[in-house]
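Quick one: ATP-dependent DNA helicase 2 subunit KU80 from Capsicum baccatum, structure tokens please.
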Amino acid sequence: MKKMNKVAIVQCVWRQGQGNVVVRVLTPNVSDKDNTDVREFHFPSFSYLPSSVHPNEKQQEVADKLVQMLYLAPPGIQKVLPPDFTPNLVLEVWRHDSYRLLLSFPFIWSITLHGMEPRISIE
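--- reply ---
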């Protein structure tokens, strides 16, 4: 992937009633094996473009269906962090992955959530 200057789209989150879409991609980076790099890519709204380049209704419907098809969970499986109910999906996924990583260490971890701030201690 690095030689071809390519990335892999691994998740696309479309929220009902919102104009923005979150796209998660994997980029090749062989130097840092343990680092998670989270970046948000913002795409401008069509409202800033001339109406001649706006998608018609059918094109918009096809684009919406494409984004919804990028849902990676198997049919019938619900996500741990449903996008419609998670205010900041990127941050919550990072927290979820961080907790999972912490719990994989051979220690007894005690994690207590107070509001949005985690309290972590080793027993």
